[in-house]
Amino acid sequence: MAVLEGLEPKKVYKYFEEICGIPHGSYNTKQISDYLVEFAKNKNIRYIQDEANNVIMFKDGTRGYENSDTVMIQGHMDMVCEKDKGCDIDFEKEGLRLRCDGKAITADGTTLGGDDGIAVAYALAILDSDDIEHPPLEVVITVDEEVGMLGAAALDATVLKSKMMLNIDSEEEGVLLVSCAGGMTSECKIPAVYTEDMQDMTGYEITVTGLQGGHSGVEIDKNRANSNKVMGRILYMLSQEDNICLSSVNGGLKDNAIPRETKAVVAFKESSVTNIENKIKELNSTLKNEYLFSDGDITLNIVKTQVDKVMTREVSNNIITALYCYPNGIMRMSSDIDGLVQSSLNLGVLSTTDNEVLFRFSVRSSVESEKRDIGYQLKCLTESLGGNYSENGSYPAWEYKQDSRLRDVMKQTYKDMFDDMPEIQAIHAGLECGLFAGKLPGLDCISYGPRIDDIHTPAETLYVDSVERMWKYTLEVLKKLK
């Protein structure tokens, strides 16, 4: 029996559960893309699957809507794959293990992918219906949104005729998003030079665990601890007490997720262990106090481990300097919109290979010059430490549209249905609206969606009643776009 069987709207949950049964993490979207193609073939729907595996599906307007402006329903097929420690799921090969108590849907030990599987489920349910009134539709489902909007960037928009776009990629019910930040991924690589001369040093493993994590755009303003940056603080503090050498340092899985766990393998003289253990205990207490309300379960631990080689002291110092001194978090708040983060960055991935240590950041800003400046800061420090800097996946900000028929319709529809006005907001997280607006001049966009809590974490939760309300809202908006 399907986990979501019996929930309304039935078709939405049918398709959502099918999507959850298919591996669809970023860079692993061929199978889900082919699933969408098979859906289109089975329903005799005209479609395009491009070389990037983006899928576009077309449906004529229903009776009376044939000459209405074309509307795009848009979302992305990839999800952020995060899991709890000890969870044995293989995201490359396995689907998710859904749980539902009738009110909320989660996945056992992993992210749920409601961001953005619910958009795909909504779109398929609309396409698979003969009794929904709507204008001509272009359903555009992109790949690799979570790793720099790569699918939207690669998509050939010349095949599209849409004048308006419903981007169903927001997670707060009752909020219509009308603007978002631009962003890019920055990579800093510092060479790692190793030696097997341990100089009578003993190996230890230091871990940072117990953090909440979260979305590096939506939740960057919640002042949650970043495990990679916490590790930088630990290592710098220890380097002031004794000469330590790094063997490896690794933390985080996605540049756009605030990392929850980081591990460093180091070596130092056995005579220093008591002092170092005491310093870590002291810092643990300090951090629990500093992050009492956001990450009160933060835990630092140190255990002896086998180490065969370490980086030279000079290289170790370079890595520690970078990790401690790289900027992270909010860089500037907006002067125009109260409470809006204007620029930020997140050190989401830290990894060690035989040749280098990689620092990968998600950089966001609604001001292009500030985005560039953050990149220059990272480049400056990296190159001064003998490393290399690069950028990829840059995408533009989505600017507020002064005159918007779509916004007017969606505001009035919300008021008519729920006897309340929706909030009109700008968001610091990146959305594909900016790329589509750039490719289709004059495109009228709104981003919205049902309530989803704790996206990009294993605590991600999709709420059943919100899904139904926003489904009915979507259908009413389409009906009024005649």
Provide a brief overview of the structure.
With 482 residues, this protein is of the alpha+beta class. It is built from eleven helices and 25 strands.
Distance between the termini: 40 Å
Total strands: the figure is 25
Please, how many helices?
11
Order the strands across the largest sheet as they lie in space.
1-2-6-3-7-23
Mean pLDDT: 95
General shape:
elongated
Gyration radius from CA atoms, angstroms: 24 Å
Low-confidence stretches: none
Major sheet details: 6 strands, mixed
**Relative helix content:** 25-40%
What proportion strand? 25-35%
- Which structural class do the helices and strands define? alpha+beta
Describe the structure.
- By secondary structure, this protein is of the alpha+beta class.
- It has helices at 10-20, 30-42, 114-127, 150-154, 227-241, 273-290, 313-325, 368-384, 405-418, 433-439, 464-480; strands at residues 46-49, 55-59, 71-76, 98-100, 104-107, 137-142, 164-167, 175-180, 182-191, 194-195, 201-209, 214-215, 245-251, 257-258, 262-269, 299-304, 310-311, 329-333, 341-352, 356-365, 388-395, 423-427, 444-447, 452-453, 461-463.
- A six-stranded mixed sheet has the order 1-2-6-3-7-23. Strands 18-19-20-9-21 form a five-stranded antiparallel sheet. Strands 4-5-25-24 form a four-stranded antiparallel sheet.
- A hairpin with a 5-residue loop joins β1 (46-49) and β2.
- It is elongated, with a radius of gyration of 24 Å.
- The two termini are 40 Å apart.
- The model has no long low-confidence stretch (mean pLDDT 95).
